[in-house]
C-alpha cells in the first residue's frame, strides 16, 4: 500500500505531456488512476514518474455530430449520464453504468481504460464491437489506431511510451443497428468474468448485414468472437440464429481460467452471455 | 426492574456522530513528535529455514534507523504468551478430553527464529523515519532461506511422514476434543434412515474495515510504555506485552481507541504488538505500524476452516437415533484456535435431542496463517453441520425439514437443560421461534410458489436453520459507576466495544436505573489506566456479562441514592421510588429529588456519619455459566441453472437473544451478522495455492458481499429471558451469523433438488452450482423432473 518513489508532473497541454514522457521513458500517464494507483500501491507497477492529464485542456467532452468523438479524459459518470449518447450509442452509457461502482465511475476515464488494456475491462470489448479507433499524439504528430490494433496483450497496447491517447472515435451507426453489453460480474472486483458486447446491423431485407461481437474477461485481451459474427451475417436475427452464434462464441478463442472461474466455465458463460447480448441487441432494434 | 422509557426504546447510537464525521481517533490518527515507523519483512515461503539475514543494504537506505531480526528481538522481548496465543473465544479451554501425548504448545516468537512456517510470517522489522522509507528498505533486506517441505492441507498434515511443523506435535496434531455418549453403534445399526456428508466450513478472513494497528511510546509517567492498539481486549494485551518485555504490569498502559471492527480477529496480542512495543521501549522513541490490507489477508488470523464428516441416523418418522461427527480443524501455523473444534463439539447437538453422539476432533497445524476466532468461533460450524444433517435426514426420509426439526427439538425449558454433548443450556423454546418464522414468512405459501415456478422451469429454494449458540463467556467482567458531584454520570467497564454500541446501551441502563441524564452519560472503555480489570469484547459478552456487572453497580448506586433521598425527604427508604428520572416518595405527589441533588448531598458535608461519602461503585460479575440464544432463519433463493448464479430473494430471521435493551442496536447486529453469514454461504473463501501462497490476498479476489447481494432483511424476535444475569439478556453479536450460513446453504440445496443434489459445499459460487447441475444431468434432467 506504499508505492515506490516517483516523480509527478502535471502538464497543461498534450505537447507538454508528450515532452515529459519523452524525457522519462519509464513514466506512466495518469488518467483516472483507478487501475494504475492500486498496482503502484501493491508495488506491481513502479513508474519513475506520473504524468497527470487532469489539467490538460481539451481532453474531455462528448460530440455526437455524425460520428461520435469522446475526449480521453471523459469520466464514466459523464458517459453514463450523457443524453446524447443514450440516443446515439446506448451501449456506451449502459456499459459505463456497470463499471466498478459510483466512486470509480466518478473518477475513472474511458481513455484510461483503453490505454490500460486490462483483460477484464468492460470498454475494451465495447470499443471493439463499435469499431472504435483512438487518436494518439506523439512527438511526430498524431495517428489513428483502430481498437482492433490497440490491444496487443494483457495490459499491453500498441501505444508508444511517449504517446498520449487523446480521443476516441466511433463511427455513426448505420441503418437499423442494435447493441448491448452483457457481463458476468466478478463478485469481488466487479470486473468482467465474461463480458460480451454485440453491435448488429440489419439490412432492408431483414437479415444481418454486419455483426461485431467482442469478448472481454475470458481472454488475455479483448477479442472479437468472429465465429459468432459469421454465424449471424446473412441470417435473420432470430432465436435460432442467435442460438447458433452463441454456440460457436468461444470458437478460436484461448480462454483463461483462475481460481474463481475455470476456462471450461468461462467457455460456457461465453455462450450464455453472447446469447443474452444478442437478444438484447435484437430487442433494441425496435 | 425496568422503570422508564430508555430500555426497549429505539434510541440512536450516542457514538455515531463522531464516527460519521470522522472526528474521533483511531491508532493511525496518532502523530507523536519523533515517531518512527515500522515495516515488516515477511516470509515468501510457507516453510523454510532462515540461513542468513543481510541487513547492510537496508541499513544504508535513507531514513532507516534500525533493522531487527528474530535473534535481535529475543534479547529484549520474550515469546508470545502461551495463554494468549490460545486466544480463541475467551472461553477457558477444557482439556479433560485431550490426548496428552499429541499435544504440545509451540513457542511462538514475534519475529521468526530459525524457521518460518507460513507465507507472511514476520521475519524482520525495519524502523525508519517514515513508512515509505521503511517499505523501500524492506526490499533491501536480504534473507536467505532453505526451503523445507510444506503441508497446507490438514488431512495430509495428519498423515504419517508428513512434513512436521513442531517437534512436539507428532502428525501435527495440536488439539483433541472428543465426546462419545450413548450406544452409537446400536443407533446406526439397523437404523431405517442414515444420511451422511463430508461438509466443509471454509477458511474466511474477518476483513475489519480498520486493519490492525499498533503505536507505542515511552511513558515518563509510568516509566514504561503506553501502547495504542486496535484490539478487542486491551487488558489482555497489556498483560502479555508487560510479561514479554519483563516490565511490571503497572508500567504498561494499553489503549484501544476507536477500533474499526474486530469480529474475533483482533483478540489477543499479535506479533506486531510485541515488535512495536519492544522497539519503542528499547529505542525510547515512539513507533507505529499500521497493517496494510495485503498484510491483513496474510497475517491477521483467519477463521473457520474445518472439515466435518457428519453421519446421522434416524427413524422413518425423522426421529434422530444418533449423530456422528469427525471434525478436522486446520489450526494454521501456530496456536490461536486450539479451542475452536471443542466449541463445535460442545454445540454438536444443536437444538435437538440426540440419544447417542460420537464427536471426535483433531486440531492440526499446517503451513498457513493461524486460524482463530471469527464471529461465532466454532459455533457457526456446529450449527451448519447440524442444520445440514437435519435437512439430509429429512431428504433421506422423504419428510419436510420443518417436521424433522419439530420432531427432535428439545422441549421448552426455563431452568437449564444438559445436552448429550454435555453442555448446559440456560433457557430455550425452539418451536416458538420456528413457528413464528414459518408464520411470518408464510411457509406453506412459499412451498406452493416453489411448485408453481418449478413447473415453469424456475428454481426457488427455501432454506431453514434453527440454531442455538453460546454467548456471554466469562470468567468475569467489571464496571464502575461514578456519579459526579453535580449528578453527571461516568461509566467505566472492562469490556472494549468496537462497534457494538454499549456507550448507548449502558447509558440507557444508567438513565433508567439511577436516573442519569442519558445525553450526558459518558462511557469510558478501552484504556487500562482508568478502567477496572476486564476481558474485553468478544463472544457476544458485552451486554450479558459487561452489562451484568454494570447492573450490580447501578443497583448499588440506586440503593444508596434511595437512602439519601429517604433521609432528605424524611420518608422510609422502602417508600422511595425512582420514576421519570426522579427519586420520590411513593404515593406522595411532588417533585422528589433528582440524582444531581442526591449527588450534591452525598459529596457535601451535611449527611449524618452513617452515610458513606461519594456516590460511586465498582463491581465484578462472574456469571455461573454461559447463555444460549437461539432462533430460526428462513432464506429464499432462486438458482439460475444456465449460469449457476444464486439470487437471495428474501431473508427472514427470528432471533431470541433474551431481553432486548436496545432494539435499534440489536437490528444492527442482526444485519451485520447476516451479511457475514450469508457471505460465508455464497461468496467468501481464503484460498492457498499448491505452494502455500495466498491466492485470495486482495479485495479484488476475496469477495465480501456488497449491498447488492441482499434483499431488505426482515428481522423479528421472540424473547426468552435468561436467569444468569440481572438483565435477562443473552447476546446477539454472533447469532445472526450462525443462523444465516446454514439457512442460505439449505435454501440453495433445496433449489437444486430436481437434480438430485443433497449437499454442496459453501461458498456456493456460480461455477460450483453450475458444475453440480451439470453432474446432475444439466437443465434437461431437471425439465424432465
Automatic annotation (TrEMBL), chain A:
What GO molecular function annotations does the UniProt record carry, in alphabetical order? carbon-monoxide oxygenase activity; FAD binding
Q: Which Pfam families match?
A: CO_deh_flav_C (PF03450), FAD_binding_5 (PF00941)
Per UniProt, residues of the FAD-binding PCMH-type domain are 1-175
The record's EC number reads 1.2.5.3
Q: Which UniProt keywords apply?
A: FAD, Flavoprotein, Oxidoreductase
Q: Which residues form a coiled coil?
A: none
Protein's UniProt keywords contain Oxidoreductase: yes
User: Does the UniProt entry include the keyword Oxidoreductase?
Assistant: yes
Q: Under what name is this protein listed? A: Aerobic carbon monoxide dehydrogenase (Quinone), medium chain
Amino acid at each position: 500500500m506504499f508505492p515506490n518513489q516517483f516523480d509527478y508532473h502535471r502538464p497543461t497541454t498534450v505537447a507538454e505531456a508528450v515532452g515529459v514522457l519523452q524525457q522519462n521513458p519509464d513514466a506512466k500517464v495518469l488518467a483516472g488512476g483507478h487501475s494504475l494507483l492500486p498496482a503502484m500501491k501493491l508495488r506491481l507497477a513502479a513508474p519513475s514518474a506520473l504524468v497527470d492529464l487532469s489539467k490538460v485542456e481539451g481532453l474531455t467532452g462528448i460530440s455526437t455530430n455524425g460520428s461520435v468523438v469522446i475526449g480521453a479524459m471523459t469520466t464514466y459518470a459523464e458517459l453514463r449520464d450523457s443524453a446524447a449518447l443514450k440516443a446515439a450509442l446506448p451501449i456506451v452509457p449502459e456499459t459505463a453504468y456497470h463499471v466498478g461502482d459510483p466512486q470509480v465511475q466518478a473518477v475513472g476515464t474511458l481513455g484510461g481504460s483503453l490505454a490500460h488494456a486490462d483483460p477484464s475491462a468492460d470498454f475494451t470489448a465495447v470499443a471493439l464491437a463499435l469499431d472504435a479507433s483512438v487518436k494518439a499524439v506523439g512527438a511526430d504528430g498524431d495517428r489513428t489506431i483502430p481498437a482492433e490494433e490497440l490491444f496487443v496483450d494483457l495490459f499491453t497496447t500498441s501505444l508508444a511510451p511517449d504517446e498520449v491517447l487523446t480521443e476516441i472515435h466511433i463511427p455513426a451507426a448505420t441503418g437499423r443497428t442494435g447493441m448491448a453489453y452483457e457481463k458476468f460480474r466478478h463478485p469481488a472486483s466487479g470486473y468482467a468474468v465474461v463480458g460480451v458486447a454485440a453491435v448488429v446491423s440489419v439490412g432492408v431485407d431483414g437479415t444481418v448485414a454486419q455483426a461485431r461481437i467482442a469478448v472481454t474477461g475470458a481472454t488475455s485481451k479483448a477479442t472479437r468472437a468472429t465465429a459468432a459474427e459469421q454465424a449471424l451475417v446473412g441470417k435473420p436475427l432470430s432465436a435460432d440464429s442467435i442460438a447458433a452464434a452463441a454456440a460457436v462464441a468461444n470458437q478460436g478463442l484461448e480462454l483463461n481460467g483462475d481460481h474463481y472461474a475455470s476456462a471450461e466455465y468461462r467457455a460456457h458463460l461465453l455462450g450464455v452471455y453472447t446469447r443474452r447480448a444478442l437478444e438484447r441487441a435484437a430487442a433494441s432494434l425496435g | 426492574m425496568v422503570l422508564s422509557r430508555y430500555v426497549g426504546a429505539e434510541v440512536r447510537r450516542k457514538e455515531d456522530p463522531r464516527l460519521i464525521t470522522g472526528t474521533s481517533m483511531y491508532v493511525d490518527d496518532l502523530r507523536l513528535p519523533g515517531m518512527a515507523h515500522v515495516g515488516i519483512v515477511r516470509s515468501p515461503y510457507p516453510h523454510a529455514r532462515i540461513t542468513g539475514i543481510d541487513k547492510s543494504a537496508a541499513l544504508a537506505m535513507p531514513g532507516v534507523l534500525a533493522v531487527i531480526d528474530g535473534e535481535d528481538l529475543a534479547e529484549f522481548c520474550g515469546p508470545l504468551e502461551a495463554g494468549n496465543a490460545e486466544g480463541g473465544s475467551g472461553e477457558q479451554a477444557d482439556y479433560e478430553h485431550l490426548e496428552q501425548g499429541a499435544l504440545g504448545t509451540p513457542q511462538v516468537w514475534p519475529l521468526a527464529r530459525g524457521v518460518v512456517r507460513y507465507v507472511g510470517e514476520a521475519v524482520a522489522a525495519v524502523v525508519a523515519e517514515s513508512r515509505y522509507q521503511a517499505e523501500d528498505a524492506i526490499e533491501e533486506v536480504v534473507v536467505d532461506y532453505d526451503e523445507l517441505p510444506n503441508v497446507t492441507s490438514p488431512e495430509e498434515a495428519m498423515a504419517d511422514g508428513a512434513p512436521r511443523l513442531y517437534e512436539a506435535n507428532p502428525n501435527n496434531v495440536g488439539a483433541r476434543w472428543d465426546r462419545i455418549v450413548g450406544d452409537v453403534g446400536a443407533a446406526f445399526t439397523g437404523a431405517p434412515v442414515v444420511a451422511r456428508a463430508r461438509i466443509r466450513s471454509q477458511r474466511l478472513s474477518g476483513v475489519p474495515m480498520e486493519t490492525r494497528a499498533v503505536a507505542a511510546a515511552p511513558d515518563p509517567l509510568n516509566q514504561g510504555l503506553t501502547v495504542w492498539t486496535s484490539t478487542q481486549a486491551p487488558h489482555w494485551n497489556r498483560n502479555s506485552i508487560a510479561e514479554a518485555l519483563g516490565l511490571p504490569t503497572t508500567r504498561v498502559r494499553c489503549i484501544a481507541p476507536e477500533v474499526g471492527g474486530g469480529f474475533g480477529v483482533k483478540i489477543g496480542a499479535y506479533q506486531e504488538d510485541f515488535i512495536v512495543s519492544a522497539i519503542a521501549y528499547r529505542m525510547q522513541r515512539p513507533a507505529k505500524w499500521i497493517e496494510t490490507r495485503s498484510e491483513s489477508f496474510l497475517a491477521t488470523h483467519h477463521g473457520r476452516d474445518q472439515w466435518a464428516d457428519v453421519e446421522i441416523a434416524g427413524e422413518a418418522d425423522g426421529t434422530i437415533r444418533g449423530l456422528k461427527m469427525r471434525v478436522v480443524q486446520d489450526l494454521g501455523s501456530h496456536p490461536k484456535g486450539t479451542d475452536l473444534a471443542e466449541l463445535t463439539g460442545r454445540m454438536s447437538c444443536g437444538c435437538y435431542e440426540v440419544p447417542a453422539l460420537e464427536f471426535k476432533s483433531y486440531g492440526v497445524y499446517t503451513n498457513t496463517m493461524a486460524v482463530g476466532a471469527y464471529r461465532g468461533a466454532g459455533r457457526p460450524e456446529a450449527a451448519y453441520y447440524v442444520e445440514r444433517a437435519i435437512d439430509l435426514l429429512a431428504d433421506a426420509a422423504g419428510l419436510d425439514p420443518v417436521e424433522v426439526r419439530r420432531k427432535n427439538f428439545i422441549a421448552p425449558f426455563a431452568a437449564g437443560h444438559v445436552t448429550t454433548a454435555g453442555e448446559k443450556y440456560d433457557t430455550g423454546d425452539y418451536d416458538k421461534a420456528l413457528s413464528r418464522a414459518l408464520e411470518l414468512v408464510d411457509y406453506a405459501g412459499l412451498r406452493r410458489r416453489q411448485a408453481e415456478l418449478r413447473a415453469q422451469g424456475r428454481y426457488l429454494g427455501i432454506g431453514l436453520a434453527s440454531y442455538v449458540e453460546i454467548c456471554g463467556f466469562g470468567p468475569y467482567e467489571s464496571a464502575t459507576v461514578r456519579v459526579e458531584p453535580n449528578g453527571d454520570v461516568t461509566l467505566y467497564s472492562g469490556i472494549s466495544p468496537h462497534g457494538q454500541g454499549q456507550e448507548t446501551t449502558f447509558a440507557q441502563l444508567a438513565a433508567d436505573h439511577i436516573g442519569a441524564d442519558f445525553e450526558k452519560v459518558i462511557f469510558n472503555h478501552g484504556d487500562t489506566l482508568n478502567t477496572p480489570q476486564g476481558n474485553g469484547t468478544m463472544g457476544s459478552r458485552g451486554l450479558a456479562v459487561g452489562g451484568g456487572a454494570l447492573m450490580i453497580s447501578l443497583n448499588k448506586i440506586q440503593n444508596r441514592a434511595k437512602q439519601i433521598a429517604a433521609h432528605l425527604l424524611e420518608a422510609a427508604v422502602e417508600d422511595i421510588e425512582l420514576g421519570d428520572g426522579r427519586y420520590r416518595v411513593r404515593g406522595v405527589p411532588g417533585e422528589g429529588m433528582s440524582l444531581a441533588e442526591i449527588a450534591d448531598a452525598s459529596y457535601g458535608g451535611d449527611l449524618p456519619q452513617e452515610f458513606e461519602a461519594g456516590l460511586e461503585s465498582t463491581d465484578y460479575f462472574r456469571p455461573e455459566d454461559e447463555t444460549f440464544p437461539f432462533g430460526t432463519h428462513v432464506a429464499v433463493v432462486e438458482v439460475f441453472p444456465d449460469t449457476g448464479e444464486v439470487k437471495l430473494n428474501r431473508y427472514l430471521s427470528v432471533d431470541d437473544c433474551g431481553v432486548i435493551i436496545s432494539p435499534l442496536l440489536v437490528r444492527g447486529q442482526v444485519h451485520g451478522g447476516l451479511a457475514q453469514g450469508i457471505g460465508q454461504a455464497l461468496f467468501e473463501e481464503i484460498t492457498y495455492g499448491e505452494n502455500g501462497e495466498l491466492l485470495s490476498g486482495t479485495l479484488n479476489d476475496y469477495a465480501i458481499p456488497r449491498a447488492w447481494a441482499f434483499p431488505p432483511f426482515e428481522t423479528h424476535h421472540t424473547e426468552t429471558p435468561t436467569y444468569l444475569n440481572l438483565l435477562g439478556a443473552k447476546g446477539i453479536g454472533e447469532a445472526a451469523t450462525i443462523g444465516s450460513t446454514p439457512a442460505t446453504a439449505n435454501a440453495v440445496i433445496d433449489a437444486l433438488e430436481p437434480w438430485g443434489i443433497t449437499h454442496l459445499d459453501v461458498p456456493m459460487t456460480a461455477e460450483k452450482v453450475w458444475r453440480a447441475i451439470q453432474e446432475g444431468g444439466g437443465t434437461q434432467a431437471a425439465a424432465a423432473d
